[in-house]
Every structure is written in C-alpha cells, then in structure tokens.
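Whether sequence alone determines local backbone shape is best considered at the level of individual chains. In the encoding step, the backbone of a single protein was reduced to a row of integers, each denoting a local shape. For completeness, the protein is quoted in full, as a sequence line and a line of structure tokens.
***
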Amino acid sequence: MRELRPRAGRSRWRPIYRRVQPRTFVILAIAPEAQIDKRGFNQKVAKARQRFEELEPANSGSHV
C-alpha cells in the first residue's frame, strides 16, 4: 500500500492505493492525514487492505 500526498503534502486527505498491473493503480480508500487523525488513518488503511484482498483473486491470471 502507498499513499498519495496531494498538494505537496499540505492536504488533510490521503488516497491509499496499490498497483495491480504495470500500468494500473487502484485507489482503495481515502484516509485523513495520519498526524491529524491517526486512528482514522489506521482504520482506512485496514479497510484498503481488506478491499485489496477482495480484489486480488480477480487480478491473478487476468489483466484488469
């Protein structure tokens, strides 16, 4: 999992994403900035991991 930092890190929101193919990225959650809301950030990262696991079988062996 990785996070985007819009507005050069000055945004309060962090899109959590993962690469699923060489040219395909999936945004799995939008989380609050961790320094402002650590609990909310951790909850969204956990949800993003869960969503990725649900997508993973569909991605193996096919080009999405």
Summary: The two ends are 18 Å apart (CA to CA). The chain is about 35% helix and 30% strand.
